[in-house]
Amino acid sequence: MALPERVWLLRHAETTAPHVFNGSESDVHLSELGFRQADALGRWFVEHRPTAVVSSTMIRAVQTALPIARDCAVPHSQEALLRERTIGLLSGQAFHPTVGPWAETVREWSKGNTSYTTPGAESFDDLKSRLHQGWDRVMAVHPGGRVVVVAHGIVCKVLLLTLLKGWDVGGWEKIGPAMNAAVSELVPGDDGLWHAEKLLLIPERVSALAEVPQIPGSVRSQA
After folding, report:
1. CA pair distance 221, 110, nearest whole angstrom
2. Stated pTM of the model
3. pLDDT exceeds cutoff 70 at 214
4. Neighbour count for residue 165 (Cβ, 10 Å)
5. What is the pLDDT of residue 95?
6. In the structure, how many helices (H) and strands (E) does the chain have?
7. What domains sit in the chain, N to C, each tagged with a CATH number?
8. Which of 3, 53, 155, 199 is exposed most, by the fewest CB atoms within 10 A?
9. Rounded (10°) angle between helices 32-46 and 59-72
10. Does the active-site annotation cover 84?
């Protein structure tokens, strides 16, 4: 299969509920800061000359994708299989990176127990199967293209850890967090594998935006 020339895998901008778990059950919109981040991303991508923008079907991904497609004057389409993880009982709970069900899930996955999950949530294996189907469908539609793929934090990390040469699930913590608006720039290699030229980096014009005040004691979600 002929692949795109280059793919930018992007986590959506900040949502109206950044301090809680928002899985596929929670179709939240972007926050005021998130819309500013999306506009900044649109301007940043102009110089990179993408030929298409593809997002998941979830509102936060679509609202991030639209300014990029607009500013770059390229088509925007949606891929349902790139939606956020189904998280079951975690939905709406306060995010904490080191304690609780999510932290336990990360520990189990990092040890190689990729079938592990909490009630009602997708496992790493479930995600890998679904996301690779979606990824392959997007790649097949854009041979030789330069594609921006707008998805979700955990979606980005599962794809990176399973597509990139030299990475696997054991590198969950080492690869770093997928923060809002983090971009990974991927190119296909002669070895048939994807290689990263940028990895979960936030463009300077996005990181320079003033942040809204943080709720005391809260932590923004990340994967």
Report:
1. 19
2. 0.95
3. no
4. 11
5. 86
6. 6, 6
7. 6-207 (3.40.50.1240)
8. 199
9. 40
10. yes
